[in-house]
Amino acid sequence: MKFTIDFFELAFLAEVCIPPVPIARSVFWDNLINVYHGQMTQDERVHLFEWITGEHKFDLSNESCHWFWARFNPEVQYTVTAMDKEHNAFLLDGKYYVAKNQWIDPSFITNVKRNEP
């Protein structure tokens, strides 16, 4: 069963889950990166990025915060073509990721285009 919440409810939930937090909240935070990002509009992504990264407890030295920053930062979003399929990816540490635990093998990449912020 799916639960539907609006963008602002999602953003408030994300705000209270800024790491470091207990494991249940950490799982939600990972879902922001791996699941909910793909369900948002570009405007919602930018708005959430600005909202969360502007919070005083958001700390890029925290690994989970760093992953959020990379997934939602409009400046590091790319369309990567690999195996004749386009992927919405983000650049982190020299790799193009499509999820926190999934990156595109460079040997399969045929084209990379930076998305306009």
Shape: globular
Mean pLDDT: 94
| Portion in beta strands | 15-25%
Q: How are the strands of the biggest sheet laid out side by side?
A: 4-3-2-1-5
Which stretches are poorly predicted, pLDDT < 50 over at least 5 residues? none
Written overview of the protein:
The protein has a 5-stranded antiparallel beta sheet with strand order 4-3-2-1-5. The mean pLDDT is 94. It has helices at residues 7-16, 23-34, 42-53, 63-72; strands at 77-82, 85-92, 95-99, 102-103, 109-114. It is built from 4 helices and 5 strands. β2 and β3 form a beta hairpin. The relative contact order is 0.13. It has 2 domains: 1-72, no CATH class; 76-117, no CATH class.
Give a topology summary.
Blueprint: H1 7-16, H2 23-34, H3 42-53, H4 63-72, E1 77-82, E2 85-92, E3 95-99, E4 102-103, E5 109-114
Antiparallel strand pairs: 1-2, 1-5, 2-3, 3-4
Helix pairs in contact: 1-3, 2-4
Keywords summarizing the entry:
117 residues, alpha+beta, 2 domains, 5 strands
Brief rundown of the structure:
With 117 residues, the chain is α+β, with helices and mostly antiparallel strands. The chain has helices at 7-16, 23-34, 42-53, 63-72, and strands at residues 77-82, 85-92, 95-99, 102-103, 109-114. The termini are far apart.
